[in-house]
Every structure is written in structure tokens, then in C-alpha cells.
Amino acid sequence: MQEIxxxxxxxxxxxxxxxxxxxxFVLNDELGLCGPxxxxxxxxxxxxxxxxxxxxxRSCVMPVSAVGQDEVTTLEGLGTLEQPxxxxxxxxxxxxxxxxFCLSGVxxxxxxxxxxxxxxxxxxxxxxxxxxLCRCFVHSRMLRAIRKYxxxxxx
Amino acid sequence: MTQSRRQFLKSSGALIISFSAAPWNALSAQDQGQFxxxxxxxxxxxxxxxxxxxxxxxxTAYTGKCDxxxxxxxxxxQLVAEELCVPLARVKLIQCDTSITPDxxxxxxxxxxxxxxxxxSLALAAATAREALLNLxxxxxxxxxxxxxxANGVITGKTGxxxxxxxxxxxxHFNLSLSPTAKRxxxxxxxxxxxxxxxxxxxxxxxxxxEFVHNIxxxxxxxxRVVRPPEMGATLAHVDDQSVRNVRGLVKVVVRKDFVGVxxxxxxxxxxxxxxxxVQWNPGPELPPQQNFFDYLQKQPSRDVLGVDSGDVxxxxxxxxxxxxxxxxxxxxMHGSVGTSCAVADVKADSATVWSATQSAYPTRSxxxxxxxxxxxxxxxxxxxGSGCYGLNGADAVSFDAAILxxxxxxxxxxxxxxQDEMMWENLxxxxxxxxxxxxxxDGIAAWDREDWVASRGSRPGYNQPGNxxxxxxxxxxxxxxxxxxxxxxAGKLRNGSNIVPSYFAGCVGGSCQGDxxxxxxxxxxxxxxxxxxTGPLRSPxxxxxxxxxxxxxxxxxxxxxxxxxxxxxxxxxxxxxxGVLKAAASASNWQARPSPRTDTSxxxxxxxxxxxCVAYEGDNGYAALVAxxxxxxxxxxxxxxxxxxxxxxxxxxxxDGLRNQTEGGILQGMSRALVEEVIWDKKRITSVDWxxxxxxxxxxxxxxxxxxxxxxxDVPATGAGETAITLVPAVIGNAIFDATGVRLRDLPFTPxxxxxxxxxxxxxx
Lengths: 155, 766
Ligand code: FES
Ligand code: FES
Hints:
Chain A is of the alpha+beta class.
């Protein structure tokens, strides 16, 4: 057990926890967050994605002790039900989900990609999503929503 | 989430819901209920079982058909709003909870729409309620019911006087039976139903607020993991508890017959303990080798069923004319939900609550009662959505596992499978081999014989077959047996639930021909063979396997006849709805009539082709035709679908946006299954245990355009729609590859290596 301070979605948390615990379990079980989800536990699907320092991180394989001072942003850290983030708004408008289990990987990866490169082409966006899995196969609507967000972002 | 039923009902605005006085066990002696399920304590014949209007005017509806992302939550909410004439925002839908919703069996097989949207169940309940409210208003306003109008939950008389629903019935029982004569609102008058209402869960999903079953947290909850055998058929020899003594937070190692699991204070501790636990297993038998599995399958004892048999096919197939044969194979495939299955169980000494993503809340309750040895009425199963399941994924097994772990520790336990637990032990989509023989004359197809062998073991546990999934097997229950027996002559009416009978068969059974086609010399036979692995329904179960073989073979016949695939199909069809979708898909895709393969291809590296197929899903539960345009790289064997055009006829459409989403998703999922998905095993075990050993198309795959057109005849009932288009995908891709290359691929998936090998083989022969 170790005392660990975590900054998540703008809030500080002090936890006593086994430092080897995957960040994902901490987000779900200690902080009660629903956005990042366990899909594979082996960095193969993206369901557990969070953003740290502008980069996407697979929280299922990152020990909580490795987070350090970096702020963690989860899907619920972007916008709220009342005021969704523009990328979330684009997904709402395009109806880009079925079960929605995969959304942290899809939305956060797209956002991080466009934050780093606002002019990313469709091909570049798709490449960035190479390790993200959606078994409901909402691919086309998701790409449309991402394109829509990219356009509003540029405008 | 641990609130009592009373609190639950309070918060659901339906204080007034109560149950018929007869205890469930007094009813259980009766025959099966109207849903083909056991009658429960919530009488589906009573209006109050389905609907309640609160004093705030909110209509709470109770349904036994639940949403896993296919959109049925929104569509059912629309249905209630429409029939009851209240705004959508004033409908509150409660799904699949064995304490408060009617038993509607399993949400599967594209049955939710036919069951709840036509002239029974939820639709009839809402229509009955509207009629009852009109009658109450007529009394109150002293005007005949016929001259009252109703909108937004307010009934207005000719005189202009008005009364609200809540003033007529708010928080009180209707005390009525469902009225079989209650009129559904006409499709032409729909204002909410039939509209592309955005799925109601979207804002919560996109902002990470949506609570899946994975997010259920109960006070005092512990975490579990299961420790499955390392191979098929292994049995437990020894568990060494000492091996996990040092795991901090470990609560208990649970062993029951061959079932092994651990419970700990945290997920991490449970995962560590499950990894570290030293377990010895007695080895299981060797598995049939994968290389010649289909030959093995055809040699096993089988349970045989004839769909149709005109009795003359053998004679016909030995007389003059061109007879062709072909054999098609379809591999085991996985549901492969993105999220592994999860459940939370709170088993106390004398009662249990289980939060489960099962498609079968009531059957799951029965199985849990059996496994926990507890009376049925002490168990409550509450559906909470999980990751998209596409059929029987691990949701049932994990619910049983969680209940066993919770009972063993006397505390609530949350259990989520590891990726390997999920994949190695799921009920796979069945592997299947189909053989065809047919004779062609100048007038068309004179005779067609088709026979399939399906690998099958277990399936849904239903109300009393725990052994149909892994947990039951580990606890000593057997799967439903497949008793070998030869087929009886088909009798009664044509049944084509698994689409073994091609659309071109006349389908004559007992003197009446209810098939969709014209071929009278016909035979369709299916053999169920014991599978080495568990199998169960996977989106379009057996329909996709059979349709792949049937519709590709039809294309082979088109080729033999040197006929255009659309024209030749039309020549053998008589069902106007199949004809309707086939023509619509051809016209929407700008189909050019000509035989396949195309002859105008240059010797370029990449060639293109088109393919078509059609189906009457389950015989009569939705009609679809699909066109695919694909590109084939002759160097690498890579197949790239470029465009799909689907035509669907599913009767009146509840929500066109939801239907489009399902159709697009289904087609792309079908594409993944056609191109890359296949379960692999070695001598001992399934080796497809994660996303590196089982392939799926990821989000970087450049998806083809999907266009969907709807064909909606008037005055037909609503049918299923979420599984119709996917059923056709392997067939249309196979047909399009043939059109492009002249090479017929009969084994799925169409991997580059397999396509390349077939191309090379043909080149050598030429
Ligand atoms: S759960 Fe982390 S990548 Fe799959
Ligand atoms: S929406 Fe279900 S997995 Fe993506």
C-alpha cells in the first residue's frame, strides 16, 4: 500500500493503494468513473483510453504509480451531459454509437490526434485509430462525426 | 442500486404496480405462456403488468425486451408514446427486471419488433390503455367516446372541455385485461413512431455518463475472478490455496466441483490471485484437428431434420441435364464483445439479486435458482446493459459465476471476465458445412438438393439447462444432448427458421407450398453434430451460414446457365416481397444485367466485381437483398469491399435512423466476419483468446459506402430487421469476388492467403 495523489478531470485525489494497480481499476473502482472501461486488459482494444499530456494512454496496462504528476482526462472529463464537448456533440448529432462500450477509445483518440494536428487527413485520423476496436461496427458514423468535429474546429 | 422494490417503484413513478395474487408456483403447473415461456407472477394478460400512469402524467411502461445498443429502448418508448398519445419525454420505460416486468423470454432472434410492435404485448397494452382512458373520459365529460380527441395525454370533448390522463387514472390501477380488439393507431397517423428519433441514450454515452452493468457498485461489494480449465474437457484435480496466501486483500478461493474462482477486496487483488493460484487439472480428450474438421463433422452421428423433401431429387439428379455439386464451409466465429462480460450478484442467506446484461432475465433467474438451490421467487434478476453482445456472449455464464462466488462469501461480488475467460469459453457461432447438388435444364433449375452439417453444443441455458454454458458444465451439468436420429418426413407447415431452405424452393410440405420460389424437386436436410466447443446464437445464427452457401450456389447456377444473377433469381422466385427487395437493390445499385464473371477486365493488378443475394429472414421475419461491389488485388489476394447497397422490407419501420444504424453496423460486421474472422484451436484448446489471435477489422479499416433503401408494402405487420442485411454479406462478397476474378471461393473467411491460393490454382489449371 502506498499513498498516491492523482489528478483526474481537474480534481485531486489522495488514495492509499497498491501502486501496481492498473490505473483503469482506480478510475472505475476508487473514483467511480464510467468512461474508461475494461475491454481486454492488454492494450489491444482502446476501451480504457484516457488522455495524459495530450497523449492517449491505455489505462488498463499503466500502473497507477506511473501516472506521477500528469493530469488524467477521461471521457467524462471533456464535457457534461448539459454541455458536451464539441467532439461529443458531433458524435451525438451523427448518432455514432450502438452499445457505446468502445467510445473512450474512439472519441479520445480522435480528439488527441486532432489536438496535435488540426489538419489531420482522414487517412491520418484512421491510422491513429488503428488500435481501436468497435464490434458494433459503427465505423462510418464515427468517422463522419470526427470529420464534422475537425471541420467545426478549423472554422 | 440496492434499493428495495418499494423504493424502486417509487422512483420509477409507478407506485401502483402490483402483481396478481396467485403465487408464481401456482401458475407454474400450467402450460407455457403466450411468449413460449413460463407464466410468471406478472400476468401478461393484465394491462397493469405493462403500463401505469402516475399522478404527474408520466407513463411508465414495463417491457421484457431489452436494449444492448440495438435501439429497442428508444423504439419501444416511441411505441408507447404513439399508442398512448403522450409526448416521448413523458414515457419512462423499465426493461427486463424479474420483479416488475412481464416475462418475455429472451430478447433475441429479431423477435422484439414482431412481438411488441404488432397486435399483442406492449403495443396492445398501450392501445388498450388509450381506449380505457377514452372510456373514462367519456363518462367524466358526459360525451360519447367516439367524439373525443386525444393528444399529449389530454382528452378533449366536442364542447372543448378537457381532462388529463392523470386526472382519470393517476396512480391507480386500470384493473383491465389487454383488449384484443383495442385498435392500434394507423401507420399513416403516426407522429412519434416511424420518425428518426435520436436514440435516447446518446448524450449519456458520448459524455461517459452511461452506466453499464460494469459500473454497478453495491455497498460492501467484493471482486471476483474465475479460474477456468486450461483446455476443453479438463477436470479439476487439486487446488493449492497456499499458493495465493500472500495476495493482500484475498477473501476466499471458491471451489465447487470443477468450478474455481477467487474473491478479493479489489479487482487487482482478484486478478493477481487468479493468475497466481496453483491448480492442477486432469487433461481433457484431444480435439479433432482443425485442418480437416469439416470432413470430421460429416462423419459424426447426427440428429437430422428435413426442411423439405419432394422425394424425387435423387431420381431427378441422375437424369439428363447438367448436374453440379459444390461444398461450402463456414468457420466457428466469436461474438467477441468489446467489453468482457460482467455481472454483480448479491446473494444473501434467503434471497439474491443479480444485475446482469443477459438477454434472458427470467430464464437466467431460473438457472440461478437451480445453481444456488434457492426458491425462484427469492431471486431477482435486473437487466443492466453490457457491451454489445450480438447474441449469447458470456453474459449468462458470468451472471451464474457471480452468483456462485457471492453465495460462497455471503457478500455482494462483482465479476468481470478476463479477455481469455471470455473468448476461450464463449458459446461460439457454429461451424457448418453445406453440400449442394442441382440439375439445370434449358428451362432453369429442375432439381436442387442441399444438406448441411452443423456443429452444436449447448446454446442458451433457457429455464433449465445450466450445462448449455461453461459454468453449468463445470458444476456437473450436461449440455442439452444431441440424440442421433434420422429425419422424419416434414409435416405441418414449412418451417425455415434457420434458412436451410433456399428462397428458390417451392417449399412444399403436406401439400401446401409456402416457400418463396418455384423449384419443385427439392430437398433440404440438416444434420446437428456434437461440437467439441460450446456454440450458441451469434447474430443471424445459422441463417448467415446457410445463406452464404445457398446464395453462392445460386450464383454458380446462374453461371452455368450463363444468366444474369438478378434475372435468373427472379425466374425462380414467387414471393412478391423477396422479388420486391431484389428489384429494389438492383435498381438502387444501378445493376447492369449480364452474366458473371465479367469478361471485360483488363490484366490489371486490381479487378472489380459485383455480387447480389437475397433472403427471407427466418422464412418470414424480414426481407432483404444486398449488392456488394468489391476490389480484388490479384497480387496479394486482398479483397476490398467498396460499396454495399441494401434493400430492406421489414414492414412499418419504428425508427428509420435506428434501422439504418443497425443495417450499416450489421453489414460492416458481416464484412469483418466474411473477410477475417475465424476461431483457431490446437490439440487441446481454443487458441483464439485475444485480439491478436482472433481477427476483427479495427477502426483504421477503410469502410465501404453503405446505402440502404426501404421497401414498405402497406398493411403488413412489422418484422425483425437487425439481422437481415448481415445475413447476406458473406454471400455477396463471395459472388462479387467471382464476378471480378472468375474464381469461386467456398470457404470462409476470404483471407488474402486463401484468395491468392485459389487464384493461383485456377491459373495453373488454365
Ligand atoms: S482494455 Fe485497455 S486496451 Fe483494451
Ligand atoms: S458501439 Fe458497441 S463496440 Fe462500439
